[in-house]
Write a structure and sequence with these properties.
The chain is an alpha+beta fold. Helix content is 25%, strand content 33%. The chain is built from 3 helices and 10 strands; from the N terminus they run E-E-E-H-E-E-E-H-H-E-E-E-E. Pfam families: Pkinase.
Length: 163
């Protein structure tokens, strides 16, 4: 997929962190929503090697329970990572907004998807290192499909390394 920043319209900020800003964007030609994670390459807290680590990890991970990586590019002093937009909410949002606890079978269904995603991550010799409810997105028509995201702290594990 050939990606260029001018192909997207920025709609809103989804989050800001130490390492950058995450935007909801729409592709201009068909209005399909995506996420773009931007990082200022001049900032001391965003070394380019860390961004490359994140991209390398995302490139290896193709799984239904992991946010899909479309591509990355650099323009001027910023890096851009184009990702799937998980349309519902985070697991944190779901748990905080509910007035009653999740039913056991619903919790098991969501948790089993998290386990499948984590298994895929680990089988590709990657550590996520920031797995928490706000980095687990929910999508699908009923908001019951898990997508693990935010690989900004992820690391490839060398075969000879001890965990």
């Amino acid at each position: 997929m050939d990606v260029r920043i001018n192909d997207y319209r920025f709609e809103s900020i989804l989050g800001k962190g130490t390492f950058g800003t995450v935007y909801l964007v729409r592709r201009k030609k068909d209005l399909k929503p995506f996420v773009i994670k931007t990082q200022d390459l001049n900032a001391n807290h965003s070394p380019f090697e860390r961004i490359l680590d994140e991209i390398r990890c995302l490139q290896k991970l193709r799984h239904p329970n992991i946010v899909f990586y479309y591509g990355a590019w650099k323009k001027k002093n910023y890096s851009y990572i184009l990702l799937e937009y998980a349309t519902r909410c985070t697991l944190k949002d779901l748990l905080e907004k509910r007035e009653v606890p999740l039913k056991e079978e619903d919790a098991l269904y969501l948790f089993s998807q998290i386990i499948l995603g984590v298994h895929h991550i680990h089988s590709n010799k990657i550590l996520h290192r920031d797995l928490k409810p706000e980095n687990i997105m929910l999508t699908g028509g009923r908001g019951d499909i898990v997508k693990i995201g935010d690989f900004g702290l992820s690391k490839n594990i060398q075969e000879y390394a001890l965990i």
